[in-house]
Structures are given as structure tokens and as C-alpha cells.
């Protein structure tokens, strides 16, 4: 017999976890849409040439790619930005600019799973294309901050920097300076020296003051509702610099050390990749898995993620009809109600099933209750039981 | 330059289409959850041995499979039932039975695209595992019918049959009889004869009467709220019989000839595939793409799928702050409001953008309005303009 197992780095999400994921996605979508962002979907498979060479050596190494049945070289979605660039040039006569889109889909990377990384993970991206006004950068910050607020985060920080802080420093030096938060000042300086850079450039970068243009972005973000206290100018922040051309943003949660909860910035040279013209762009990508991890730690998920509100038990085959009628009427009152589908199962076992599934309420309907036209409503947390008329039932559950 | 294009059989969904897809998924999820079904997610990639050989010769031919970077043979999700079978045995100590789950994910099949088929398409499945009561079959019918109702369908039909109708007829004969709706009586009989069957078996099957057990399923479905008029006993219905072991269901829309809008039934031999035990199962799969196609034809999508309700224009850089304040307050009133992010764009062009994006309302805020503490609200459909105070604004838009 074949062993039932998932591939390393791939995950199943059983209901409890799947509901948390859906919850985060729903909250994010609602925030995105409140700012005028609209959904976009692209396929899992693309022509290999669309994706190859777009993510550096590492991307080419980690990309899932193969020859399909029709001898075409194909590759699996690696991120959502290169497909966005393809979409924008493929449909350039249809898509009005500015194009504000969100995209929430899984991507695939053959990562080293020993580092706690997954090979299939959901990316949540927002991007505004076609404008390079400061207000566009500011709005990306405002939406991202609002999203974290709506998820229940209070003490997140918005680190901000600009590509211009680094002037014409070589990429190698920038990459080392970018590690400051991770490895500390001493190690950054040492690594700079090892690579024949003056270790003094770290201090020089650290002493950079806020530029007028970045200051304007921050000011507009404030007007858009972002708490100024949350925005921190961080001149060593780079986030893979060959990509960003202007504002660079990162959102982190101080007590969560494993990394940022999301990041983004302005990247004016990428979206035009497949077109003849330059398309300015600014975006933000939410670290979906990390957000869920931190929300679990901080207990930010609502207790009522349980979708099923009540289990209607079946006392006996004879009384099954009564249970069905009640279930129907609960659903009409917009209460998610499950009916136990087997009259031969003892009530005890039906109650145990409700416990296992964390269903908060159970309705029991024996011959006594039917005679009196009532039901027993059992609160599975407090184990408290109440006898109620059918009229009282919906409110007692809501 | 690389040509921006999608692979044959793969699709991008631009916002208008993506919103329709999200709408259908939201409606379905809500119905599923109201009956106690919970979400499950499985990975796109599985070990090849998990999927290979499970879908007949055609499945093995159409499956996307390849060797990954770690020399593992892997395959892309082909349906959601075999992964469900894997999940149920992999987590058998964690998942309480009955297990009622829904799953909405893309699957991948290298289909002949000339037949109008897609190579990546979303499947929407509900299944109840662990029970073989008639009520379980009935509930699957009730949920499916409710889902079509909530999507706005009126005149759908629920065709129903049972595996037992065919007795011990060879599969080949059943497959031919199953084509009745598609190719008509004459052709079915001819094909039966060609394959050395007595063409009289068609009539024999057609004359089969409703069995007691199927009758019970229908009766319970009615008690669960299904309109009896919609249920039609169709003794020639088979839907790939080597799979189904009991009830067989299909939902179609009479004027839509291209095929059914969904189907399912009882299949008690498949879910135990990776376990030592037998797990009874009944389920239904919604034809997602066809449902959207028919809903488009019948105009069943709500006119208000447009997520952005209002575009707040920017009259000039000086007045930008005022526009931002109004946008913030609209969002606080739960109105999805987009602000135009460039003060240098002429109002005419901003209005044109709202038209292109089908945004129903535009707010214009010039020096006159600011002086009077009012705004102009323009209805983009009627082109009607009103001058309103800020207090009047939310209600005028809602």
C-alpha cells in the first residue's frame, strides 16, 4: 500500500488552520478593496522564458520547471510580480492605468526546508502601476498599515528608507549594510572590511537624514491616516536593492525576531519588462505565513472562527423529522447549523463529535421536548443546558 | 524581447472576471458552511505515486508530472478526491468522522484545448465521509440545490439515479447508455449493437422504477428543503460508474446544452485507498467555469460586483488634503473609496478613469465647494451631479 504523505515543504491545511488562513485573506481583501484595489489571478504555469532569469541565480535554481506533454518548457509561479508585468503588457490596451491590483495565490520555490521554509506558500501582494507620485507610495504604506490594524496588530513598526540613501554604493556593500538588524553593527563592519570596503560607510549611512522626497511620502501617509509614531526612518534598510528604485518599506513586529511581516517599495524598472515602455510601480507583499504565526502567538484570531454554530442531534429515527425542521429554520435565521446524519448513533457520541469539532452549541430534542414543543440547548463550553421554545432559539444562539 | 503570452489552456483573470469568480466562491462557501462543511486545503504538488493510476488511462495521460530538483517524481493536483483520500488516512487520528469538508482549488489537466477545455481550472467539492446513511446522500443533494438557488438559478434540475439500476451490466454497456442525453436513443441503440449488446437493454433500463432506498433519499432531501419538482429520476444516468457505488446525482440547466453544472454521488471504495479500512463517502462537485458561463448568460451576477464605490478626484495640489480627508471619512463609513493619486492629472482624465473602471460615483471638490464646505457627487451612469454637504455624502452613495 502507498504511504499517505505530503512532499517535504508542502502542507495540508485541516479545517482549523484553513479557517485561519481564510480569515486573514478576507480581512486583507476587504482592506484592499476599501482603497480601490481589485483582484487579479494568473495561472500556476507559465512559459519558462517568462520567468527564467528574472529572479537572479537563486531564482533559477529554486524554480520548479519542466517539459510538459506538448514538449513546451514550463515553470511554476515563483512570485506574483513577474506575472503582473506579463499581464500589464499582454493586456495593455484593456487595462486602464493607474492599475491598482491585489493578488493572493500560492507560489512555488524549491527552498531548503531545513530553514523552516515552505515550497508552496501564499503570497499577498498589492501594487499600484502607472503613477510615480509621492501619494502613490504613501497610499501603499497607508493600506499596509490599515491591513495590520484590521488584523489586530497594535505595535507594528513601519521602517522606511529610500534607494537614494545608498547613492552609488556598490550592491555588495549595500547587501552587507542591509544585514544590520540581523547580525549587528560589529559583524556588519567586519564583513565590510573583509570585502575591502571602508567599515566607516556604515556610520555614514546610519547618519543619513531623511530626504525631502521621503519626508513628503511620510507626510502624505499621515494625512491618509497612518500613525506617525509607527513610521521609523531606517537608513540601512535595503531589501534586495537591485529591484527597488525609490521608497523602500518594511513592516515588522518588534518581539518577533524571525523576520519582517511584509515589505515592499517602488520599483520602476521591472513592470515594463515585456513592453516597450516604462511603467512606474510601487507595491507591498504581506508575509502570509509569518502573519498567521504571529497572530497565533498574540492570540489575535477571533474566538468565533468556528464556522458551525450548532449541532442538531438526532434522538431517534422517529424524531429525525423534527430535528430536520429545526435545522432548516436555524439556517433560515442565518445560523450555520449541522444536523447529525445518522439516527443510529447514540446521543453521547453525537455530543462527543460536537466537542471534537469545537461546535459551541448542541440542540437535543427528545420525546419530552417534542411533546412540550421545546428543545434543549446545551452550551458545550459551560456544559450548561437550557430548555427553550423554538422562538427563543435563534437569539439564544446568536 | 520575450512575447508576453499565457500557455494554451491557461487563463488570466482580470479584475472584472476575477470578481465574478470570487462572488461565486463566496456564495458557495457560505452555503457549505451553513450546513457544517469546513474548508480543507491540500498542496498543488504530490508524490507521483499518490496520484498515478488513480484516474484511469486518461488520467495518467493528462496528468502534469515531472522530476523535481531533488530527483523526486512529483505530480500536480488532478482532482481533489484522491488528495482527500490521502488526507483522511494520513490524519486518521486527528480528523473526527463524519468529516464534512469543502475544497475549492485549481486542478491541472493537459486536456485537448480544442474542445474548449482548460488546463487549469477550479474545482469546488463538498464531501461527507464516514457515514452511509440515506440522510447523508440527501444532505449532499440539499446543499447542492441550495447553492444553485443562492447563486440565483431557478430552473435547474436534479437528475438522480442509483448504481443498482444497472445491476451487473458490463461497464462498457453502462457507458454507452449514459450517453443518452448527449447522442439520443437511436445512436445509443446502434452503439450497443455495434458492441454486441442487446439494444433492448436501453429500454429495460429506461423502464426501471425508483428503488425504495433511492426513494428514501429523495424523501429526506425534500424534508431538508429540496423542491420535489426539481428532482428527476433518470435511470440512464451513470457519470463514470466504476467510481460510484450508490446514489448518482447530476444538476443541469435545461437550456444549457454543453453539459451538466455539477455532479456527484456515493463512492464507498475510494477514500479508504491509502488506509486499511473502508470509508463510506458521498460528494458533489460544482462545475465552476460552466456555472460562471451560465450565470453570465442568464445575467445572474449582481450589478454591484464593482468593489470600488466612489472615486475621489483631486482638483489641485492645494486641495489634495481636503480630498484625502473625505476619502478617509468615506472608508470609515464602510464605503470603498479610491482617491486619484496624482494632482497633476486633469479632472476630465480622472473622470475617464472612473468610467473605464466602472466606478459608479465620482466626488469633485473644487475651490467653490471647499469654500461652501460641500462636494459635488456625480453619478457616472446618469451623469447627474448633486451638491451635497459632507454629512449627506455617505447616504447618497449607499
Provide a descriptive summary of the structure in words:
The structure is a homodimer of 398-residue chains. Chain A has 14 helices and 16 strands. Chain A is an alpha+beta fold and 398 residues long. In chain A, the strands form 3 sheets. Chain A has an 8-stranded mixed sheet. Chain A has a 5-stranded mixed sheet with strand order 13-12-14-15-16, sandwiched between helices. In chain A, helix 11 links the parallel strand 12 and strand 13. In chain A, helix 1 packs antiparallel against helix 5 and helix 5 packs across helix 9. The interface between A and B is large, with 98 and 98 residues.
User: What overall form of chain A do the CA principal axes indicate?
Assistant: elongated
User: How many helices of chain A in DSSP terms?
Assistant: 14
Provide the helix percentage of chain A.
25-40%
Radius of gyration of chain A: 27 Å
Instruction: Kindly report the oligomeric state of this protein.
Output: homodimer
Strand order of the largest sheet of chain A: 1-5-6-11-10-9-7-8
Distance between the termini of chain A: 47 Å
The biggest beta sheet of chain A reads: 8 strands, mixed
Question: How would you spell out the order of helices and strands of chain A?
Answer: HEEHHEEHEEHEHHHHEEEEHEHEHEHEEH
User: How many strand elements of chain A?
Assistant: 16
Mean of residue pLDDT of chain A? 94
Kindly estimate the percentage of residues of chain A that lie in beta strands according to DSSP: 15-25%
Largest interface: A-B, 98 and 98 residues
Can you tell me the residue ranges of chain A where pLDDT is under 50 for at least 5 consecutive residues?
none
Q: From the helix content, strand content and strand pairing of chain A, which structural class follows?
A: alpha+beta
Amino acid at each position: 500500500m502507498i504511504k499517505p504523505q505530503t512532499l517535504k515543504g508542502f502542507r495540508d491545511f485541516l479545517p482549523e488552520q484553513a479557517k485561519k488562513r481564510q480569515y486573514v485573506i478576507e480581512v486583507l481583501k476587504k482592506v484592499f478593496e476599501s482603497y480601490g484595489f481589485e483582484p487579479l489571478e494568473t495561472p500556476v504555469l507559465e512559459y519558462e522564458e517568462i520567468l527564467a532569469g528574472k529572479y537572479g541565480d537563486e531564482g533559477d535554481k529554486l524554480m520548479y520547471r519542466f517539459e510538459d506533454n506538448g514538449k513546451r518548457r514550463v515553470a511554476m509561479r515563483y512570485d506574483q510580480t513577474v506575472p503582473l508585468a506579463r499581464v500589464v503588457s499582454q493586456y495593455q490596451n484593456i487595462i486602464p492605468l493607474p492599475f491598482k491590483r491585489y493578488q493572493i495565490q500560492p507560489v512555488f520555490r524549491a527552498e531548503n526546508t531545513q530553514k523552516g521554509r515552505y515550497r508552496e506558500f501564499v503570497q499577498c501582494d498589492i501594487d499600484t502601476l502607472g503613477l510615480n507620485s509621492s501619494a502613490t507610495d504613501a497610499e501603499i504604506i497607508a493600506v499596509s498599515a490599515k491591513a495590520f490594524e484590521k488584523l489586530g496588530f497594535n505595535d507594528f513598526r513601519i521602517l522606511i528608507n529610500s534607494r537614494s540613501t545608498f547613492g552609488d554604493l556598490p550592491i555588495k556593500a549595500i547587501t552587507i549594510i542591509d544585514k544590520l538588524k540581523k547580525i549587528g553593527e560589529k559583524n556588519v563592519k567586519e564583513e565590510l572590511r573583509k570585502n575591502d570596503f571602508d567599515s566607516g560607510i556604515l556610520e555614514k549611512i546610519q547618519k543619513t537624514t531623511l530626504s525631502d522626497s521621503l519626508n513628503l511620502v511620510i507626510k502624505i501617509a499621515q494625512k491618509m491616516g497612518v500613525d506617525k509614531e509607527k513610521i521609523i526612518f531606517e537608513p540601512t534598510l535595503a531589501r534586495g536593492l537591485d529591484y527597488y528604485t525609490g521608497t523602500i518599506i518594511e513592516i515588522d513586529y518588534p518581539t518577533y525576531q524571525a523576520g519582517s511581516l511584509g515589505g515592499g517599495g517602488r520599483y520602476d524598472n521591472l513592470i515594463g519588462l515585456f513592453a516597450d515602455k516604462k511603467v512606474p510601480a510601487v507595491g507591498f507583499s504581506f508575509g502570509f505565513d509569518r502573519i498567521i504565526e504571529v497572530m497565533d502567538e498574540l492570540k489575535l484570531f477571533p474566538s468565533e472562527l468556528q464556522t458551525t454554530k450548532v449541532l442538531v442531534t438526532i434522538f431517534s429515527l422517529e424524531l429525525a423529522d423534527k430535528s430536520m425542521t429545526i435545522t432548516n429554520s436555524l439556517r433560515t435565521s442565518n445560523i450555520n447549523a449541522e444536523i447529525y446524519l445518522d439516527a443510529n448513533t447514540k446521543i453521547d457520541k453525537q455530543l462527543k463529535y460536537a466537542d471534537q469539532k469545537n461546535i459551541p452549541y448542541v440542540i437535543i430534542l427528545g420525546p419530552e421536548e417534542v411533546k412540550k414543543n421545546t428543545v434543549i440547548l446545551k452550551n458545550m463550553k459551560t456544559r450548561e443546558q437550557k430548555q427553550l421554545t423554538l422562538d427563543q432559539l435563534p437569539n439564544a444562539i446568536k
